[in-house]
Design brief:
The chain is an alpha+beta fold. The strands form two sheets. Strands 2-3-4-6-1-7-8-5 form an eight-stranded mixed beta sheet.
Length: 273
């Protein structure tokens, strides 16, 4: 997990969130029999005319895929999508991901853009169907790594697929693959901030690190808070709740920024000093 933090890590997400996969089955043109295999997976592919290709993320060719109530656009990444996903950029986070230097030129990348209705109204049912579709596409393209643009995060695609399978049983979303946790310094000390949580939970988190704590200890707790926010919605009122350890407590202080973005300030403490 990348720990560096700079101003770019708190930039607003793109208007059109997308996922980009790097795998072994993709080529410069669609794999042979792609449309047939998509149909066998129940994704109802529809070839979209070139003049309907989104301007930012997809260069073409382009398919629209449907599963239950959700639909996504699939095609080759545009230069803008490649630039945003650049793993060498310090503003990009990586979780169990290590892409080869030539990843951009191998022809092994495809981009998936959820249609606007599915992002504007991310109901639990729609999100489950979207994740199910992502799991099918990971299998179809033999994906080794996946990039999620709202978090600007690369992670291990088979791990995400396993997390989606667990979500379908337990209802727990794959937060670590959807939210980046960025470690940095402020005038008040070390902090860990989320990126990408707003899309699913309506706010980001900024947690101040107590002296002696590790980044892993912070991420463990902030991931738990992120999960609660995804499942229950943003924290609106200040509150104090119990932490993970005996005697540990957490102060939650929501703040509305002047730019309209919500942040939940988090501070940890203990009854034992």
């Amino acid at each position: 997990m990348q720990a560096a933090y700079n101003d770019a890590s708190s930039l607003p997400v793109q208007p059109d969130p997308f996922a980009l996969i790097f795998g072994n089955a993709a080529e410069d043109q669609p794999p042979a029999g792609l449309e047939t295999r998509l149909r066998h997976m129940g994704l109802r592919p529809e070839l979209v005319a070139g003049d309907h290709v989104p301007a930012v993320n997809i260069a073409g060719p382009l398919y629209r895929l449907r599963l239950a109530s959700v639909s996504i656009l699939v095609g080759l990444p545009s230069d803008e999508a490649f630039d945003l996903a650049d793993p060498r950029n310090p503003s990009t986070s990586l979780l169990a991901a290590s892409l080869p230097p030539e990843w951009r030129t191998t022809g092994q990348c495809w981009v998936f853009v959820p249609e606007r209705d599915d992002i504007a109204d991310p109901s639990p049912t729609r999100m489950r169907e979207l994740f199910k579709m992502m799991a099918l596409l990971i299998d179809l393209f033999g994906a080794g790594h996946i990039f999620w643009s709202p978090a600007r995060l690369w992670s291990d695609a088979p791990q995400l697929r396993a997390s989606i399978a667990e979500m379908l049983k337990s209802g727990m979303p794959p937060v670590l693959h959807l939210v980046a946790f960025r470690h940095g310094e402020t005038g008040a000390g070390e902090v860990v901030r989320t990126r990408g949580l707003t899309l699913f939970g309506g706010q980001e988190i900024e947690g101040r690190m107590p002296p002696g704590w590790t980044v892993a200890e912070m991420v463990k707790r902030l991931a738990r808070l992120s999960l609660d926010i995804v499942l229950s919605g943003p924290v609106i009122e200040p509150r104090r709740v119990r932490g993970l350890e005996a005697g540990e407590w957490v102060l939650l202080s929501p703040r509305d920024g002047s730019d309209g973005h919500r942040t939940l300030l988090v501070e940890f403490g203990s009854d034992f000093g």
